[in-house]
Amino acid sequence: MSRRRSVHLAIGLALVGLVVGAVLMSYLWLPFAPDDTSGGRLTAPGGDHLLGTDKLGRDLFTQLLIGGRIALGTALGAVAVGGVLGVGAGLLAGFATRWRDDVAAVTLDILIAFPTLLLAMLIVAGAGASLGTAILAIGLAMAAIVARLTRVLVKQVLTRDYITAARIAGISWPRIVLGHVLPNIGPVVLVNLALQAGLAVLAEASLSYLGLGTPPPNASWGRMLFEAQATVLTAPVAALAPGLALVVLVVGVNLSADGLRDLTDPTRRRSR
């Protein structure tokens, strides 16, 4: 792996680690209670309020930390849902007979044609706004992308000579999947899931901005941006803080995924 890619991985892990560290700290210490409105409306940064207060008098730093919990929780939850469902569906499609594989391929292409955020909005609108619904909706939308990738990878692995040798040796398909298929497709799928985690953070922020994400009083970076747009000229920190937090987390995840791709792909390592 080139030095430039190593730097990308280091920077990405540092940015993600910064957010994770702040979120872990929030479970041990918060400057103020999330619903504390004693700070006064739109207080400037400084003193007891590091980033100032919002239009309701709540401490912005406290809201930012709680929003980090929501962002990381959504990323991990959506990746878990999308990974389990997507890999499972992709494995089934990869082993399916020709006509069933064609049906699965067309179905996945149709699902992927719809933007992730649009699918998530439709699911949340029907099931009701909540953090759990947002995670499920984003995970389901993500699953189609993971399933198509898994299907393609499985098809490639099944043409390898070691799969033929395993079948000749009488090894069962479940053992082949666990011993040969999953280990060979795993690195690529994991890198894709890392990239999807960044998209999940943006999708949750978008849903919250539209009022379809985590309901009050829980803080969300997307809803913080929505609430701050009316006072962006008089209290810019209220909009800049969650926006910068989103950029740090998403860029960190993407850089980490890019670095991991070089670590797990020997062809990319040789080409650099």
List the helices and strands and how they pair.
Blueprint: H1 3-28, H2 60-95, H3 98-113, H4 116-127, H5 131-157, H6 161-168, H7 173-209, H8 221-228, H9 237-264, H10 266-271
Helix pairs in contact: 1-2, 1-9, 2-5, 2-7, 2-9, 3-5, 4-5, 5-7, 7-8, 7-9, 8-9
Q: Roughly what percent helix?
A: over 70%
SS-based class: mainly alpha
Taking the alpha carbons of the first and last residues, their distance comes to 7 Å
Shape estimate: elongated
If you consult CATH, what is the topology? MetI-like fold
Radius of gyration, in Å, reads 22 Å
Largest sheet: none
- Arithmetic mean pLDDT: 85
Subcellular location: Cell membrane
Protein name: Peptide ABC transporter permease
Organism: Actinoplanes palleronii
InterPro entries: BP-dependent_transpt_permease, MetI-like, MetI-like_sf
